[in-house]
Sequence to fold (445 residues):
Amino acid sequence: MEWEKIISAKRLGMEMLYQENDEDRSTFQRDYDRLVFSAPFRRLQNKTQVFPLPGSVFVHNRLTHSLEVACVGRSLGNVIARRLTERYPQLKETAISETGNIVSAACLAHDMGNPPFGHSGEKAISAYFTEGKGIELKDRLQDNPAWWTDIINFEGNANAFRLLAHKFLGRRNGGFAMTYSTLASIAKYPYSSVYAQGRHKFGFFESEASQFESIATELGMIRLSAPGEPLKYARYPFVYLVEAADDICYLLMDMEDAHKLRLMSTGETKEFMMAFMTPEERSHAESICRMVTDANEQISYLRSKLVGMLVSECTEVFMQNERAILDGTFNGSLIRHISDIPRQAYQELSKVSIDRIYRSKEVLDVELAGFQIISTLLDLMTEAVLHPDREYSKLLIGRVSNQYEINGPDLYTKILAVLDYISGMTDVYALDVYRKINGNSLPAV
Fold:
């Protein structure tokens, strides 16, 4: 890959209409704005990040998380653009200055494909087809090897690409018609689900494989699979920045939320945060904390300090390895390669968070409820598309938006339509549908 050719302003599905943008907003800023004003983005406000929603104490949801990741991603992208033009002055004549806009737009979209109830939603969908009644469909989805692996490894990242790129019924070609560069920056795992066995991570469903191939070819992404084999590519460089922004935000913000919910004391939260710092940095931070008596303000200050520190650390890793990133030989995330003190602190906090945050009673209760709700909805909707002529099936299908291909030409398309419908739900809406289907809630008469 080459920096001079890595950015493309072509819009998926609108390639024939491509022309240079002459508006005040750049093409990539328009990507960002298009996402902010979209319905799927607004729905993120009622999707669980980690902790239950809503509550008496405000904690992050998918929307606030995505906005914060976009802010950090923009900072990372802007610094990288400046550093690259300093190293390669000829890049001033390219669109490399748009890196911050591209990365921030991709950060906004990175969680748009996640189902309700956090990661338990993804697990519930996969489990339905590997442990539940859905396993009976395996023999009927053998026409293409990726059809079954798409479903049993359901992945929010791949679903985000589908949400943005797929031509849903009544919509235009290319879905949101995002730029090639923004779409490539979302694909954290740029390969088919057939390579996801045991890893449960992939970048696009088979239904959007040809679109991803077109994007990858245009951007010069390195193909790792042979012709005729399922698609597999080296990562697009800006994916590392999107991933780093997410890594920086989710752990620090989850710890801040845990502090607000009193799952972690002020003292231990401060200690975990200061573990990222050198003795000199820690001394300065302690002096600032002594000037502020409010515990939440102290934690907010430390969090902001760590965000800035980790942005600088990830920037250095990116610049030190930029040739390996372009060549597709860089391994792991940027956060895994930061300097010793913050890396060890990050690893330790990750371990503690598993027990203290991600396995807390509050989080597990959400996951249990979400698992039951999504499993039930999947069971009923799958049965409905398999037997659409039944009276109960007609009632269920009647609830589904006509943009989804419930009556598609094959079973794979129909199952994906069910997943489109359910994964697009908010937590509140999924719970409401579940209650009504089970007769626990009746419409007003």
Remarks:
- DSSP finds 19 helices and no strands in the chain.
- The CA atoms of residues 381 and 418 lie 7 Å apart.
